[in-house]
Amino acid sequence: MQHDHSGADTNDTDLNKGSISLSGAVGMGTGVMIGAGIFALTGQIAQLAGPYFALSFVLGAIITSLSAYSYIKMSNAWPSSGGVAMILQKAYGPGAIAAAAALLMALSMVISESLVARTFATYVLRPFDISSGPLVPLLAVGVILFAFLVNVSGNRSVGLLSIIMAVVKIGGIAVFGIVALWAGGFSFPNASSSGAGFDATGFVASVALSILAFKGFTTITNSGGEITDPHRNVGRTIMISIAICVVIYLLVALAVGSNLTIDQIVAAKDYSLAEAAAPAFGQAGFYFTVVLAAVATASGVLASVFAVSRMLAMLTDMKMIPHRHFGMSGPVRSHTLVYTVVMASILAVFFDLSRIASLGAFFYLVMDMLVHWGVFRHLRHEIGANGIILMCALAFDAVVLAAFTVMKLGSDPIIVFIAAIAIGAVFVFQRIYLKQWYVAPSDDKDHAMEGM
């Protein structure tokens, strides 16, 4: 199949243009972000940032907004169901650099699926006082399979279910946050009463996880070709989703900090919201939060599976990754859906929440930096992007990645080495497969850009 390098969208025949509404896309984006950001990462961020963990979400939102600028400008010009891959190929050509960075994005999304799936299992098992053992990965795999079945039923099922679950969880989390803040006296004393001091490196490192909590906006970018009126709605959807998540994250962070000390949050870092609900709501509140977490994380897995399977299909169509059918029938996108579910399930079984989140942060930040540099170096004039904003986004990513690496080298050096080896392996694999690092794009009107 010939690929149209204009990058407007994939030319798979099963692409349903306009099948995702603005509200459905917002539900999909917030589904990924809120599922990971609040329930999976709040405790881990508090562990690094100490009493200022709520501010980590603020800084993460600012950096994410700067990062979103590159994706919005590119998506407005060329909406695509493989949005990040399209950006990278237009910047670096169809060589190993673009392909490796795009594969890192896809893998970071798979990692997010396993992170949120494992968080689902952790919360669901809390009423039974089970925090380890075979039931945790078993339930995690179960919710991934649920997302697979919904995705098989088609885009409109994903969009409708995403809207319903987004409304339920955002409303429920808002109720939790407001009532918990009320019970805590609208103050933030307990979070700073444990004696934890301010560590600048730890705080900056925590922003890596805060950024990971917002990275769900790329789900929208990667489904751009299927969103109604994409040239207008992709950017709107991204900014609406980020704005909703900023409000929700701050509300919950303040609510948790009003009812628990930092030591308590860290001790219950895998289920900190459920722990914080007990002082504010009692036992009924605890169960309410568990149910809410189940809905939120399930919708997060659903939205992430939807996006990453389409991105892998786009990479296959663009000849950026090899593809094998393994005896499966049907279109390529049905195959990549299976690959997505299998990879996420393996990660959910073999890695704990902290290491899954760390891997996701390393993969995503490296990819994000390559996107910003590529847009700045080759495409900013063509799409009318502001170079200062692009370089600020790149610089913030670099500082956060450096701080996060330093922290992890001190606390868990093994995951740093795993991440470095995995990222290196991706680049080497793509170099062997594509045989060259950089290929100058063709000089047609869709690929006009500055030379190296």
Structure report:
The protein is mainly alpha-helical and 452 residues long. The chain has a single domain (23-434), classed as Amino acid/polyamine transporter I (Up-down Bundle). The protein has helices at 22-37, 42-49, 53-77, 83-92, 96-125, 135-152, 155-183, 200-214, 217-221, 230-259, 262-267, 272-281, 283-317, 332-350, 353-383, 387-411, 413-434. Helix 8 (200-214) packs across helix 15 (353-383). The chain is globular and about 60 Å long. It starts with 21 loop residues before the first helix and ends in an 18-residue tail after the last helix.
Secondary-structure element pattern, one letter each: HHHHHHHHHHHHHHHHH
CATH superfamily: Amino acid/polyamine transporter I
> In CATH's first tier, which class applies?
Mainly Alpha
How is the main sheet built? Answer: none
What's the architecture, going by CATH? Up-down Bundle
Total beta strands: 0
Number of helical segments with 4 or more residues = 17
What gap, in angstroms, lies between the N and C termini? 29 Å
Domain count: 1
Give the uncertain stretches in residue-range form: 1-14, 189-195, 443-452
Q: Tell me the helix content.
A: over 70%
Strand content: under 5%
Structural class comes to mainly alpha
Give the overall average pLDDT.
Answer: 80
Q: What is the approximate shape?
A: globular
CATH fold-level label: Amino acid/polyamine transporter I
Question: What Rg do the Cα atoms give?
Answer: 21 Å
Concise synopsis of the structure shown:
The chain has helices at residues 22-37, 42-49, 53-77, 83-92, 96-125, 135-152, 155-183, 200-214, 217-221, 230-259, 262-267, 272-281, 283-317, 332-350, 353-383, 387-411, 413-434. With 452 residues, it is mainly α.
